[in-house]
Amino acid sequence: MENEQEKRHPKTFEPFAFILIVATSILGAIIGMQIVTSLGVTPNTAIIGALVAMLIARIPINWFLRYKSVHRQNLVQTAISSATFGAANSLLIPIGIPYLMGTPDLVVPMLLGAALAMFADATILYKIFDSKLFPASGTWAPGVATAESIKAGDKGGKRAGLLGIGALIGVVGSYLSIPMSAFGVAFIGNIWALGMFGVGLLIRQYSMPLFQIDVNALYIAHGVMIGAGIVALVQAAILVFGVSGKKKGGTATRSEKASDAEYTRPIAEARRTLGLGFIAYLVISLLIAIIGGLVTHMSVGMLIGFIVFAAFAAFVHEIIVGIAAMHSGWFPAFAVAFITLLGGMMIGFPPVALALLAGFSAATGPAFADMGFDLKTGYILRGNGKDKELEREGRKQQYITALIAFAVALVTVALAYPSYFAQNLVPPIDKVYVSTIQAGATPGVANQLLLWAIPGAILQLIGGSKRQLGVMFATGLLIATANACWAVLVGIAIRFLVTRFAKQEAVASMTILAAGFIAGDALYNFFNSVFKLKK
């Protein structure tokens, strides 16, 4: 059976597959909403989905036995993961903002706009994944962990043993409040990018106790991200739309074709996708402005400014979040959306427009990053791109699965949000957005952002597009996870010693162990959030 499936990828719309995808999507959406409103975070449910599929494969019924296929297991994990992040991050967080602002009539317009942004977000990533801008060979660490878990369940043996040991260490470490995902990522990702990520985390953790400097309250972290983000956007533009871009008439140059040979997505297709994506965001922001009634709150000039700024902010948000997710496995979606909000406040948009702006920006990025993780899992399971036809077909089926999961998430949120809001169950981050809007722009914020944008831009410029030093340093500054800095820096040090002095087999084993650390951390955090294992 497995040999046959290596030649022909399973389809999403196989009868039992579709039913299972919808069922796990409902489960994922409920989990996402429940946990983001109670704890303020969204759990990684991909590995839970993989485990569900593995258990189903042990049931001695023909339809269930089909799930011994790693490709079918991959579709299940894609469904539950997409639904979890879609419902929690892309939908519930955005609609909570106008509700807390005291404008419940804007919840439905925001839900519609957020849903369209979510679908556009995932589609853009699907169309540019494994291009020069977002290569499948990138780190995408949670995707690696899920793939290794599925492979271990399929093959057993030494690989399963190593992964099991890693997962056990991950669970124990997480129970002891050690951020094991950060530790595991340090063994897998780009060492330069992760090094700067670790330094950023270190400064965030100790700047206040040692120097009485709050990098968050002083907008230092936000300024660094703005500077690094602008340079990163320029670097991405050069990569995609650069001077070697295309000949007259739109045909690719010889050098461009040679560069595309190692990818399954040509740079010309990525270029087209990004252009169409920006147009899509313009249309969505226009729709939000119209149905949200902004016409009555702003002049024509201000309305046009809002539409263009909102589209540009959403576009930049997904690129920055995607870069951070690819290199570190972490994505500062809340913080980058907050930067967008600050920008809108300094421009002078009215409070109602700011609420819709914050929600629209927050809706983009999470689906983009999560789909990157899911497609990385599939890329590994399909043989790391050796069979390009299988890779393209498998990726297409994952994309279709994700769209179904997002649709299920949309219906689930639409049905459930009145009950959640009636019980005052709103994502905690929404209170931060709303209190910021109500407080208004603080004098001197613009100067702080511009001042700290300079070192962020310089650092990003020095590292270049491959190392992403500025973006990763800013990501670390924006994340307040206790001791994550030590997990990253110690992991990098161990990795350096192993790669320098150990045999190649030990290096390969280290990668599987690292995937186990991430898987164990995800499992612990999931069950802890559901069953409160630790008070």
Short characterization:
The chain has about 525 residues and is mainly alpha-helical.
- SSE string, helix = H, strand = E? HHHHHHHHHHHHHHHHHHHHHHH
Q: Give the distance, in angstroms, between the N- and C-terminal Cα atoms.
A: 46 Å
The biggest beta sheet reads:
none
Binned, the helix content reads: over 70%
Using the alpha-carbon principal axes, give the shape.
Answer: globular
Report the portion of residues in β strands.
Answer: under 5%
Walkthrough of the structure:
With 535 residues, the chain is mainly alpha-helical. The protein has 23 helices and no strands. Helix 5 (70-100) packs antiparallel against helix 17, helix 6 runs parallel beside helix 17 and helix 6 (107-128) runs antiparallel to helix 18. The chain is globular, with a radius of gyration of 22 Å. The N and C termini lie far apart (46 Å).
Task: For the structure shown, list the relevant keywords.
mainly alpha; globular; 535 residues; single chain
Fold blueprint:
Layout: H1 2-7, H2 15-38, H3 46-56, H4 62-65, H5 70-100, H6 107-128, H7 141-155, H8 157-175, H9 180-185, H10 191-211, H11 220-241, H12 254-260, H13 267-291, H14 300-328, H15 333-347, H16 351-363, H17 366-381, H18 388-422, H19 428-439, H20 445-467, H21 469-478, H22 484-501, H23 504-531
Helix pairs in contact: 2-5, 2-18, 3-5, 3-7, 5-6, 5-7, 5-16, 5-17, 5-18, 5-19, 6-13, 6-16, 6-17, 6-18, 7-8, 7-17, 7-23, 8-23, 10-21, 10-22, 11-20, 11-21, 13-14, 14-15, 14-16, 14-17, 15-16, 16-19, 17-18, 20-21
